[in-house]
Design a protein that fits this description.
The complex is a heterodimer of chains A (463) and B (60). Chain A has 463 residues and is of the alpha/beta class. In chain A, 39% of the residues lie in helices and 13% in strands. Chain A contains 15 helices and eleven strands. Chain A has helices at 7-15, 21-39, 47-62, 105-112, 155-162, 179-185, 219-227, 264-270, 275-290, 303-328, 335-345, 349-369, 395-398, 404-409, 438-451; strands at residues 42-45, 74-78, 116-121, 168-173, 188-191, 211-216, 259-262, 294-297, 375-378, 413-420, 426-433. In chain A, helix 2 (21-39) packs antiparallel against helix 3 (47-62), helix 10 crosses helix 11 and helix 10 (303-328) packs antiparallel against helix 12. Chain A is globular and about 60 Å long. Chain B has helices at 5-13, 21-41. Chain B contains two helices and no strands. The termini of chain B are far apart. Classes of the chains: A alpha/beta (463), B mainly alpha (60). At the A-B interface, helix 10, helix 11 and helix 12 of A face helix 2 of B.
Chain lengths: 463, 60
């Protein structure tokens, strides 16, 4: 069996000229050939491009001209990220044959960093409609058990990273679409602060809630990928014009001295989590306590109070994006996408503005709650992945999610593996930071992940 | 008084979306959950409360 590598491991070997990017690409392609007919994580495989990228990286390696830690690293992009000359579909019949002329800004940045593009990865239709079985491509499956859901919408990235088909990939997160698949697929994914990473060239879902960000097997790998994504883009109206710190500089500093707030009511009463998820959260808290972190409970408004304005804003903005197609090509959408978006047509202008006013009040509440804290901890998903055919259509209306509150507030939030449930499916924990304090979030996540042993195990399907 | 399916259907007709009666019925069943979410998102705030997004005249 071919070995698995993290980005950090592969990068170190490539830098030492002990490992060929072409060989690494071949390992990933072999794994894709063996397993993606089951997982459906790729909508398009760009094998020729991958080998061209890998050979270029190998030439740089041999001439001592490597571009950095991502040079020669196989990655994939969620199929809402525009890729010049490469089909970008949003997993939708409406864009089934669309070939963009330009790369999304962050796609260009990863290319410039030397990444090897393996292909385009499955998503929920336009990042909201899924898991759907009435689209031109099937939904991605969870590598830990292909009968189960990956979560969405960055479903292909979650599945492909967990199965080792790529070493990292892009996700987007409007209500939890990076952290949800990271949680259910047992990997790491960070939604950065709103405005840290450009969204230009990424198909919009909700302008004031959309975030781009990385997903990878480990927190350290997320830091490396985020480094190559972050930065001011004058072409993105939401982009933050501020210096980008070194996200890896303090990542090995450990958890000592961190001030940790636990939003216990989110996962204990607002949406009670499974026993395995609760055990994972307590395991993480025990670690932080033993490392000398200061831990106390934090009380916020009920989680549903954060979800309600988040979803009203999301549905209204998404409907504004899609209204012309919804009227003219309604039945070209999948059922889940079109039915969910209809709610956006029923929101009055005053109701949208009231939701925005509520959002500001919640941002202020969160800022005050974190005044003397470094991070917050709660769940990132309620439980292990459900069966893919048992995912309810109205999931966002039925129960509040753990991820949406931090889209509403825009602060950075990381999901990482915190163990495995009885059925062998992963459980997760969420670490949240103050705006633009990704380095602290990554440091805390890496400290826990390094101490825990969850990264030693890959899905049986690919092991 | 709860909204009837007919009244809900007329509200959907105003959106201009080409929904079938079957699609309207599916949405009608979930409408109470949507209404509850909408009510929670729009609970009264002080008159002077500003929204989260304000206009930036320095447009780029």
């Amino acid at each position: 069996m071919d070995p698995f590598f993290t980005i950090a491991e592969a990068s170190a070997l490539i830098a030492a000229r002990k490992f060929s990017p072409v060989e690494l690409t071949r390992i990933c392609l072999n794994r894709i050939a063996a397993h993606d007919a089951t997982l459906h994580s790729f909508l398009l495989l760009t094998e020729e491009r991958a080998f061209a990228d890998a050979r270029a990286a190998e030439a740089r390696m041999q001439s001592g001209a490597l571009k950095g830690p991502l040079d020669g690293i196989p990655i994939g992009h969620k199929d809402i990220y525009n890729t010049a000359g490469i089909r970008t579909t949003a997993h939708s019949r409406l864009l089934e044959h669309t070939i963009p002329a330009e790369d999304a800004v962050v796609v260009g940045k990863w290319t410039e960093a030397g990444t090897v593009l393996m292909g385009k990865l499955a998503t929920h239709e336009f990042a909201i409609g899924g898991p759907s079985f009435d689209l031109p491509w099937p939904p991605a499956r969870n590598p830990w058990n292909p009968d189960h859901f990956t979560a969405g919408s960055s479903s292909g990235t979650g599945a492909a990273v967990a199965a080792g088909l790529v070493l990292g990939g892009t996700g987007s997160d409007t209500g939890g679409s990076i952290r949800g698949p990271a949680a259910l697929c047992g990997i790491a994914g960070i939604k950065p602060t709103y405005g840290l990473c450009s969204r230009r060239g990424v198909l919009p879902l909700s302008f004031t809630l959309d975030h781009t960000g990385p997903m990878a097997w480990t927190v350290r790998d997320c830091a490396l990928l985020l480094q190559a994504m972050a930065g001011y883009d004058p072409g993105d109206p939401a982009s933050a014009d501020r210096a980008v710190p070194d996200f890896s500089a303090d990542i090995d500093r450990g958890a000592k001295g961190l001030r940790v707030g636990v939003i216990r009511h989110f996962h204990a009463t607002d949406n009670p989590v499974s026993p395995a998820t609760l055990q994972g959260i307590e395991h993480a808290l025990d670690f932080f306590r033993q490392e000398g972190a200061e831990i106390r409970d934090v009380t916020l408004s009920p989680m549903a109070d954060y979800n309600a304005p988040g979803w009203i804003i999301l549905l209204t903005e998404a409907y504004a994006v899609h209204e012309p197609w919804m009227k003219e090509r309604f039945n070209d959408y999948g059922e889940l996408m079109r039915d969910r978006l209809v709610w956006g047509a029923l929101v009055r202008g005053t109701e949208y503005v009231q939701a925005l006013r509520r959002r500001r009040a919640l941002c202020l509440e969160m800022r005050n709650a974190m005044a003397d804290l470094d991070i917050l901890i709660t769940a990132s998903a309620a439980a292990e992945a459900p069966k893919i055919h048992e995912v309810p259509k109205w999931t966002m209306l039925e129960k509040p999610t753990f991820t949406m509150p931090f889209n509403v507030t825009g602060q950075p939030a990381l999901s990482l593996c915190s163990g495995y449930g009885a059925g062998g499916l992963p459980v997760s924990v969420q670490i949240i930071g103050k705006p633009f304090q990704e380095a602290t979030v990554l440091r805390a996540g890496h400290a826990y992940e390094s101490a825990a042993q969850w990264r030693a195990k890959r899905p049986d399907l690919v092991s | 008084m709860p909204l009837s399916l007919d009244a809900f259907g007329r509200m959907l007709d105003e959106t201009g979306l080409p929904l079938t009666d079957a699609q309207k019925s599916v949405l009608f069943d979930a409408y109470p959950m949507f209404q509850a979410m909408l009510a929670r998102a729009t609970a009264p705030l002080p008159r002077e409360a500003e929204p989260a997004v304000v206009f930036d005249p320095d447009v780029r």
